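Q: Sequence in, structure out?
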Amino acid sequence: MTNPIIRQNIGIDISKASISVCIAQKLLDQSVLFPSSKSFENTLSGFEKMNRWIQQFIDITVEVHYTMEATGVYYESLAYWLFENQKPVSVILAKQFKSYAQSLNIQSKTDGIDARILAQMGVERKLSLWSAVSGQMRQLKQLSRERNSLMDEQTAIKNQLHALKHSYQPDQRSIGRIEGRLALIAQQIKEIQEEMSEILANDPALKERIANVCTIKGVSLITAIAIIAETNGFALFHSRSQLVAYAGYDVVRRQSGTSINAPTKISKKGNKHIRKTLYFPALSAAMHEPAMKKTYQRITEKTNIKMKGAVAIQRRLLVLIYTLFKNNQPYDPN
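A: Exactly. Output:
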């Protein structure tokens, strides 16, 4: 064979119910072929059907790589399935995918097109391999999100109770039922926090890193766990800018000639759970941490917008948590 296949990659675009799959093969002359593409259900049986289908088109003498984008939690089942079946897989961040797609000057966006872009990206670029995070980290992420959901529910029910108590001749039985729901939620939140503590007690190394993160004023144990769990222990991140973009704190600007000159703002395209988690800790840090207080006051005085100062502190806290966790060291304000 004068022009053999030298690289093979499977690009996979993932949604809640389905996965769009495209096969790419790079030849010795650097050309890229796309033998076939197909969609499957985002289920275990769908993964197995995908695997059998792929075997029809690949060269078994050349390693097959898999590339997908980190899309919420929907990518996780397939990523773990591939990892457990010893198939090399790369999980890329949304900003990486967007930048590569722009380099190809592709304007359209469909599941099939995204899968093709991911397939081509995998044969043309050297991507870092993804490895499964620990079971403890997965548990912490699930518990953290469950707790946040209960906290939101608790706030809504408290508001309902407050309105009912201040209404004319409120039904005492209704008040009792609502108070019973609040008591149940409070008990469940307590149980979740106890489970989190048990997980950390069984993983001394993780417990030590999280303890270092908690040396930042304003960052509680629950906050540290939430941020670290949402980022899977920062496993996919190799720079601060990647993390900032993943959380949606990257700054975007729209400007063109004299007709368009919108003010800068954060993209908000990243993980909303991170931004929500950092809201109150940032306000606390802006009040009690001297360096962050100074930053908050400077930005607020310059823009006259308190939210911009708060967002800047959120972003700074996120980067600081990342640095302390990666380096396994406590916070030094000096």
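The longest strand covers residues 5-14.
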